[in-house]
Amino acid sequence: MGFQRARSEEQRATRREAILGVAAAMLTEMSVSELTLNELSRRVGLAKSNVLRYFESREQILLELLDREAREWTAELAREVAATVDPAASPRVRGEAFASAVGRTASRHPALCDLVGAQSGVLEHNVSAEAVRRHKRNAFDALAELVDVLAVAVPELGDAAWRLCLTAVVLAGALYPHSAPSASALAAYAVEPELAAFRLDLAEALESTVATLIIGTLARDGG
Fold first, then answer.
1. Which of 78, 171, 195, 214 is most buried as measured by Cβ atoms within 10 A of its Cβ?
2. What CATH architecture is 58-221?
């Protein structure tokens, strides 16, 4: 497309949405680390300097995508928990059902997990304090919604629900790279299959770890 500077806030919003849409599509075919501003600009059809009229940096674009992905995942998880957690079951069974829903739904959002993994070490750099503040506010609100879902499913956890939910989100980002090995790692596993033990199934690993955290917290607190 030929670049014409947006003259109104509505036009600027439309341009920003177009850029975010292209970036989101790119994350379906490449990792966060592979997404460059040069390639994004090429696909959008704008010079890099023109993309930077709408966003501070590549990192700000990815932080906004992270916020959107988090809202979508939280809403999906809430539906899944409502459909699968039996309120008449024991706290442990409800906790395990919640953990299972976390693993299933997170594995359906690989871009979110990849973005979470890059959040603190990469995405919160090369952006202004105001951009980080907006992101943290969005993240806080999304996490609060997640805590509400867990609190309804397992009210026995009490105040520990916040820490558990934050840990679950961090775990999704930390575990994801080990479930999506590089081409070189896959080639190594093909040569020496025993080494494939390092590859994790994201849904299984996340479910197991979150369930262990919930059950351990219930046991410690007498729930």
1. 214
2. Orthogonal Bundle (1.10)
